[in-house]
């Protein structure tokens, strides 16, 4: 499709630096098309304030803010948590938000009769892949526009120059221009001083952390919490029934106050480079820990070990933008099967960045104190002799062969 044939574009709009300047840029470079700005609300909170006014002021015909919070939690976050999916310590906060948002972009583009979908992801990042693979999976013939791969702008400083020249209002300055992504699950920080891996993150600097405090600034007394799960899904916090969404929001507050969930990593991006990022995931870190704790009671050894191996594949699929792939769907089916008995309650102690196990109970527990006790039990210790003889037979035969004893 030629540029001149594109009359209507749906733009993935966050109101941040990249997408703010894309609106006038598209107007200038694509023959003044109609631009529909779409923001998927995945829990950005105050970042959504004034979004519609700003989008229209900078050239959009309208701005749609779609509430995706429940869908994001139930259809994307919880499946990843149940899978135990972790990519190099990273709990996938940006990764699983992108397919959720892209799904809504496709729906609106089809409803509006748009000719193209546009995103503001850079050519260096993972998000360009996540957005575009989701669009290809859901609307395979839809035109995709990625300005960062077309325009002459080379840096965020040049973006700010462009914004100032086109009277685009910004909430950032050149000095505080971290690249951030925020939703109800996490907040990421990249750029500026973090680009030098020799620099310690400024956790104690006012304004750096938004969802958490530094463990040094956390209370000197622990906070105890209990979490209840049904078939792997969180259903109650401190004995109060809640939706998974409300549990995450409450855990964000409790975890943030106790300095939980700070992560500083150099990760391997899909596009081939290493990148340093600082993540805040207070509620998510607690939820993963609690779920893993309960699984230790409820899953048999072979299932637990196989699930642990497949969790790496699951995380890589999500990180690499393959949410809508057949393999991810198949792995989710496996995970759901493993969660049938993962029901029960766990107690945790939160203290200065630490999550300390404080008790776990399940009606489906495979742990038996009667069997494993160091006291008297019905377990016949003499049975171990035959077990060891059979289990060790290959080792014994190998040694006898090497010593000429066969």
TrEMBL record:
Indicate yes or no for the key word Signal.
no
Annotated residues that bind ATP are located at 12-20, 120
**Keywords from the named record:** Amino-acid biosynthesis, Arginine biosynthesis, ATP-binding, Cytoplasm, Ligase, Nucleotide-binding
Q: Where does L-aspartate bind?
A: 122, 126-127
User: What SUPFAM superfamilies does UniProt report for this protein, alphabetically?
Assistant: Adenine nucleotide alpha hydrolases-like, Argininosuccinate synthetase, C-terminal domain
The keyword Ligase belongs to this UniProt entry's keyword annotation: yes
Domain Arginosuccinate synthase-like N-terminal stretches: 8-169
CC per GO annotation:
cytoplasm
Q: Which residues form the Arginosuccinate synthase C-terminal domain?
A: 178-397
Write down the chemical reaction(s) this protein catalyses: L-citrulline + L-aspartate + ATP = 2-(N(omega)-L-arginino)succinate + AMP + diphosphate + H(+)
GO terms, biological process: argininosuccinate metabolic process; L-arginine biosynthetic process; urea cycle
Family assignment from sequence similarity:
Belongs to the argininosuccinate synthase family. Type 1 subfamily.
Mind telling me which PANTHER family this protein's record contains? ARGININOSUCCINATE SYNTHASE
Q: Which HAMAP family match?
A: Arg_succ_synth_type1
Can you state the subunit structure given in the record?
Answer: Homotetramer.
Please give the name of this protein. Answer: Argininosuccinate synthase
UniProt source species = Candidatus Avoscillospira stercorigallinarum
């Amino acid at each position: 499709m030629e540029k001149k044939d594109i009359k209507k574009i749906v733009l993935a709009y966050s109101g941040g630096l990249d997408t703010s300047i894309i609106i006038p840029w598209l107007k200038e470079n694509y023959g003044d098309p109609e631009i529909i700005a779409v923001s998927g609300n995945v829990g950005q909170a105050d970042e959504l304030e004034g979004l519609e006014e700003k989008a229209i002021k900078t050239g959009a015909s309208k701005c749609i803010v779609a509430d995706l919070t429940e869908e994001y939690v139930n259809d994307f976050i919880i499946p990843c948590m149940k899978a135990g999916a972790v990519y190099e310590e990273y709990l996938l906060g940006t990764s699983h938000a992108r397919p959720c948002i892209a799904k809504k972009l496709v729906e609106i583009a089809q409803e509006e009769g748009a000719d193209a979908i546009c995103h503001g992801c850079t050519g260096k990042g993972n998000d360009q892949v996540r957005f575009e693979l989701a669009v290809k999976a859901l609307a395979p013939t839809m035109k995709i526009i990625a300005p960062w791969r077309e325009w002459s702008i080379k840096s965020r400083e040049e973006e700010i120059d462009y914004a100032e020249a086109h009277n685009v209002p910004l909430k950032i300055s050149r000095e505080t221009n971290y690249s951030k992504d925020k939703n109800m699950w996490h907040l990421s920080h990249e750029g500026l001083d973090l680009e030098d891996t020799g620099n310690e993150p400024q956790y104690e600097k006012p304004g750096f952390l938004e969802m958490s405090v530094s463990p040094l600034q956390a209370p000197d007394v622990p906070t105890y919490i209990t979490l209840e799960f049904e078939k792997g899904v969180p259903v109650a916090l401190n004995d109060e029934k809640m939706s998974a969404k409300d549990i995450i929001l409450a855990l964000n507050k409790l975890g943030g106050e106790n300095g939980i969930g700070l992560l500083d990593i150099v990760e391997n991006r899909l596009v081939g480079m290493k990148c340093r990022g600082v993540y805040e995931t207070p509620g998510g870190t607690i939820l993963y820990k609690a779920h893993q704790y309960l699984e230790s009671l409820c899953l048999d050894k072979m299932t637990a070990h196989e699930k642990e191996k497949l969790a790496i594949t699951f995380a890589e699929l999500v990180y690499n933008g393959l949410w809508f792939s057949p393999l991810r769907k198949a792995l989710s089916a496996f995970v759901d099967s493993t969660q049938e008995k993962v029901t029960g309650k766990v107690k945790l102690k939160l203290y200065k960045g630490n999550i300390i196990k404080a008790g776990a109970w399940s009606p489906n527990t495979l742990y038996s104190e009667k069997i494993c006790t160091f006291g008297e039990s019905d377990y016949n210790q003499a049975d171990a002799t035959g077990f060891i003889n059979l289990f060790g037979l290959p080792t014994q035969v190998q040694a006898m062969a090497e010593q000429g004893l066969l």
